[in-house]
Design a protein that fits this description.
The protein is mainly α. Helices cover about 55% and strands about 0% of the residues. The chain has one domain.
């Protein structure tokens, strides 16, 4: 294709690949921390708003109080 900038396309793909690898490392780290310290070890800010249920639900087993 005469109109495609192959170098730019390769650079974009390399950047995207690096971003995916970084995201995977972050997700693996989050999982590792949650497995070691429990589900409530890492939470999003949204989980601290009034009416949020994530913290309480994480303390339950199968949706029932333990």
């Amino acid at each position: 294709d005469l109109f495609t900038d192959h170098e730019a396309e390769e650079a974009r793909q390399a950047e995207q690949s690096a971003q995916l690898a970084k995201e995977r490392r972050i997700q693996e780290t989050l999982l590792s921390i949650k497995q070691k310290y429990g589900k409530n070890a890492i939470l999003r800010g949204l989980n601290f708003e009034e009416g949020a249920t994530a913290i309480e639900r994480n303390k339950q087993i199968g949706g029932h109080k333990a």
